[in-house]
Amino acid sequence: MDSITHPPSEAKARTLLRSCVWPDGHPRCPRCQTAHVRASGDRYHCPHCRRKFSLYSGTWLKGCHLSPLTLWKLIWCWQQGYAPGQMAELSGVSPQCVSRLLPRLRAHLPRTVQKLTGIVEVDETCVAHHKHGGQRWVMGAILRSAPRKVALRLVMDREQETTDRFLLDHVSTQSFVVTDGWQAYRHIEDFFGYHHRIANHEHGDLGPTNRIESLWSAFDRWRLRQYGTPRRSHLQGIVWEYQARISTPDWFESPLSFLTNALLPVPRE
Q: In terms of C-beta density within 10 A (0-12 exposed, 13-18 middle, 19 or more buried), how is residue 6 classed?
């Protein structure tokens, strides 16, 4: 599917989705796992446990009433960065349908990356401005060398305990860490053994943290363009999505690449 104007046929979309759910090509009952089932249109019948099931049964798409082709269109629009309203219009579904589907798609993206090793720039940015201390922060780390990798985490504050935990979880202690002059980073060389370089922004030393600052600018533009001002409950999923878009771009090459990675074979119920 090269564009929304040239989608696969309904039969082709169903065939591709079936190959993601059952990689061996044999439909299996989600309860007893037998492959000796009978197909009847879009439904299957298991003679062993006398249970009817569909292509979505036993997967995280269970309960989804979208046709394979409509699901294909929605995933393609999401991968291309269309706003939810545009996704609904181009796919012929309601905005409420899109708002229910997006969290399910984001929930099955990879949430972790291998620890970054090398020259790593670390910083934080505020993503929600609320009165009375209700700010939400995103901690971020970006690897300078290729392949491009980032680690992002939504946090409540940027105090020393929070920054320490982020660094230990996402950055190898063998790395050379570059940060700004925020006081929470000043001890990491003595306590954890990181090689540390401080870029003092107040004195105009901005070059060493160019990549992480550019990351925040790109993240803000993408977030506002695609989601506007999202609910606070959706912020964590949006942060994970942006991390996945950069660190695992193969998930966003096509709907087939996403479903192949995210839609595991039907598990036993």
A: exposed
